[in-house]
Amino acid sequence: MSNNAELTNILVCGIGGQGVMTASEVLSMAAIQLGFDVKKTEVAGMAQRGGVVTSHVRFGEKVLSPAIPKGEADILVGFEPAEAMRWAKHLKKGGVAMVNTSRIKPPVVNVGLFEYPDNPVEEMRKNGVEVYDFDAGEIARELGEMRLVNTILMGAISEHLPFDAQVLKDIIVERFRQKKPELAELNDKAFEAGRKAAAKSAQSAA
Amino acid sequence: MNAIVKAIADSRHLLSGNEALARGVWEAGVQVATAYPGTPSTEILENLALYPDIHAQWSVNEKVSLEVAIGACVVGARSFCAMKHVGVNVASDALMSQTLAGVNGGLVIAVADDVGLSSSQNEQDTRFWGRFAHLPILEPCDSQEAYEMAIRAYELSEKFGIPVIIRMTTRVCHVKGLVTVGERQAYEHKGFLDDPTKWVMVPTHAKELLKKQGSRDVILKAYVNECDLNRVEDGSDKRIGFVTSGPAYLHVKEAFPDAPVFKMGMSYPVPIEAIRAFGETVDKLVVVEETEPLVETELKAAGVAVHGKDILPKTGELSPLILDKPIRELYGENVDDLADPDLPVFPRPPTMCVACPHLSPYYCLSKLHKKIRIAGDIGCYTLGAGHPWKALDTTTCMGASISMALGMTLGASDEDKDKPVVAVIGDSTFLHMGMQPLLDVIYNRGNVTVMLLDNRTTGMTGGQEHAGTGFDIHGNEAPRADFEKIVVALGVNPDRVRRVNPYEMPTMFKAIKEEINQNEPSVIITDQPCVLTTRFKRQNPLKVIDGCTGCANCLSTGCPAIIVTRRETETRKSGKEVEKAYVEIETTACTGCNLCVSTCGPDVIKPVSFLEVAKNVQ
């Protein structure tokens, strides 16, 4: 279609309140630090009301349109498996999905109006998507803080980015050092735990 | 202090369009900035409030907000006002007269259009206010332009002596990009301009000003054709030349990098002559605009042949992909429909939060819905229209719940005339535009039951302070409007004003049942804070102990912390089939509001013991 081959497109998806926007913010900061032009967009109107949230991060020499066209995402970061499945077709051929398998069922599923898919990750694989999946929620629980899911997923995806994982980790840890220093070490740990989990998922897939 | 406030000249920052616009407004030397929150415009004023040398305030509604800004401009300051697209409808009374009077100090109004409807009741195109009010419209395409155009807008406002509208859209407001900033300019305060023929809008004065508006139109139309905010970007593929503005410009550049483009930064008045000249250099012209065919229609009226909404979508956001097929067809290319359907997943509509104080009013209203009509309003509580409550019959615009409820009682059919009508409205919305409708109910001896859901914040836009919270935009203490006193002052019988804790469900239910059966207006005020604010205090979470009978009553609260673990169909002795849904409570999400406890038949929802909580934390 255009000169998009020169851009890196990362689509982060999940549910309001999960930290999707923070994730895309740190990804953007990393890209800026490496000298890229960056755009980051989200539809945030009702972001904290349990609705679908996506954030698009695009970086490269020069970014024009802020939204990633369908079929052009290099990386999909799914904070929730059904949400990853919803956005799977935004990935380009050969794109990679990193998916947290902790499920969040909305009230419309709980009251029985809709079915939650049996196995979202399998559905994605059947459709030819390369998926790495693990339970980031469980790791966060073990580390004692549910909000770590975000950092765990960033660690998990870090090996698939066109820059060194350390850059991303330093930005995350530094953000905490400035805003909530007591959580800096824990986020460092969470980042590494995510990295390990992704590597394990890669092994089991191979 | 936020980093951007201290940012020095020529430094680059990752800013949203709203943050960048705020920076530009501050640099322009603005003294007074006002707004009522509204997605996607809200963060503009939140960011302006960070700058210490600017007076920023939340006003009670957009009309008041604009009038405060106008007042500041009349006495010679540069002033600013922000709102969402539907806010202009409220502010339009002031706008349509001030456009005649003009300005003294510069006045800029930023309006954010919710193109694509992420959080609004309609998709109206703000550029029409430019035509209606004879005002220039500037359209930034990204954060850098939002910043630059804010400064430029003040120059234009003072050059032409009129308010200037900056039209933002969601994809400018909420997109972050790199912005190179400057420094605050020293603005030479103009002082009060003593001229009643300009500021006192009586027919004699207005008649003279109308003539001036006519000559101003001529000047603006000449200016826009020369203005450097509009530019031609050459391209090698001359088959189609694009005329475009805002984020649509970026989509065009991405999809068709070789095409010539006429980029409008000032899109009203439409630069017709400049576009006509551009048209001479290409085979065909296509106007790509969000959302209405405003530029297209003006060009066609001026005899310029263009394509536009005849081939492009008439509503919603555009994107490189959306442009691709219709434009390639216009090129005469064979276009395969490459539509690749998404994998089917259940919808996930936004819903109320865990422990939201609006859950219990809607639980009660949903149980009573067969016997009553329910008129809703604009805010988080509009979500009451969704599952599981389905407890709203109408929602139109800010404040309309109460006035429409009155109309619904007056216009009811014989069959319906004894059906009580309930209006549901939030605290911020009530202060924005709900007081006058209630006065109308009283004055006209109507009978409406008003549920004033006071959660002490402007919830849906992310928790802004307002005149009823007791705090100002900076979080400093401010006089707090007393809802009980207000409704009594408006004429509601004090005996018919009830304050109810929404977490006490049986009391809530009883209060509604009693008040809808009165022969005069009632107001039921809830008094628990929004769970997303620091005013909300978490309690010991709950869990479902053994003995859930699957009655699913608790699911009717709509609390997202209640999860179904198993479903089954049970056949009773009578042969009747009953759906059962067994539940558990997501302890990490539950805040222990106790609302579901009163809905549980077998009484098996209990607080998690302190020991268990302690174990989880470790």
Automatic annotation (TrEMBL), chain A:
<dbReference type="InterPro" id="IPR052198">
    <property type="entry name" value="IorB_Oxidoreductase"/>
</dbReference>
<protein>
    <submittedName>
        <fullName>Indolepyruvate oxidoreductase</fullName>
    </submittedName>
</protein>
<dbReference type="GO" id="GO:0016903">
    <property type="term" value="F:oxidoreductase activity, acting on the aldehyde or oxo group of donors"/>
</dbReference>
<dbReference type="InterPro" id="IPR002869">
    <property type="entry name" value="Pyrv_flavodox_OxRed_cen"/>
</dbReference>
<dbReference type="InterPro" id="IPR019752">
    <property type="entry name" value="Pyrv/ketoisovalerate_OxRed_cat"/>
</dbReference>
<dbReference type="Pfam" id="PF01558">
    <property type="entry name" value="POR"/>
</dbReference>
<keyword id="KW-0560">Oxidoreductase</keyword>
<feature type="domain" description="Pyruvate/ketoisovalerate oxidoreductase catalytic">
    <location>
        <begin position="16"/>
        <end position="195"/>
    </location>
</feature>
Automatic annotation (TrEMBL), chain B:
<dbReference type="InterPro" id="IPR017721">
    <property type="entry name" value="IorA"/>
</dbReference>
<dbReference type="GO" id="GO:0051539">
    <property type="term" value="F:4 iron, 4 sulfur cluster binding"/>
</dbReference>
<dbReference type="Pfam" id="PF02775">
    <property type="entry name" value="TPP_enzyme_C"/>
</dbReference>
<feature type="binding site">
    <location>
        <position position="551"/>
    </location>
    <ligand>
        <name>[4Fe-4S] cluster 1</name>
    </ligand>
</feature>
<feature type="binding site">
    <location>
        <position position="548"/>
    </location>
    <ligand>
        <name>[4Fe-4S] cluster 1</name>
    </ligand>
</feature>
<feature type="binding site">
    <location>
        <position position="590"/>
    </location>
    <ligand>
        <name>[4Fe-4S] cluster 2</name>
    </ligand>
</feature>
<comment type="function">
    <text>Catalyzes the ferredoxin-dependent oxidative decarboxylation of arylpyruvates.</text>
</comment>
<keyword id="KW-0813">Transport</keyword>
<keyword id="KW-0249">Electron transport</keyword>
<feature type="domain" description="4Fe-4S ferredoxin-type">
    <location>
        <begin position="539"/>
        <end position="569"/>
    </location>
</feature>
<keyword id="KW-0004">4Fe-4S</keyword>
<protein>
    <recommendedName>
        <fullName>Indolepyruvate oxidoreductase subunit IorA</fullName>
        <ecNumber>1.2.7.8</ecNumber>
    </recommendedName>
</protein>
<dbReference type="GO" id="GO:0043805">
    <property type="term" value="F:indolepyruvate ferredoxin oxidoreductase activity"/>
</dbReference>
<dbReference type="InterPro" id="IPR017900">
    <property type="entry name" value="4Fe4S_Fe_S_CS"/>
</dbReference>
<keyword id="KW-0560">Oxidoreductase</keyword>
<feature type="domain" description="4Fe-4S ferredoxin-type">
    <location>
        <begin position="581"/>
        <end position="610"/>
    </location>
</feature>
<feature type="binding site">
    <location>
        <position position="554"/>
    </location>
    <ligand>
        <name>[4Fe-4S] cluster 1</name>
    </ligand>
</feature>
<keyword id="KW-0408">Iron</keyword>
<dbReference type="InterPro" id="IPR011766">
    <property type="entry name" value="TPP_enzyme_TPP-bd"/>
</dbReference>
<dbReference type="InterPro" id="IPR009014">
    <property type="entry name" value="Transketo_C/PFOR_II"/>
</dbReference>
<feature type="binding site">
    <location>
        <position position="600"/>
    </location>
    <ligand>
        <name>[4Fe-4S] cluster 1</name>
    </ligand>
</feature>
<dbReference type="GO" id="GO:0046872">
    <property type="term" value="F:metal ion binding"/>
</dbReference>
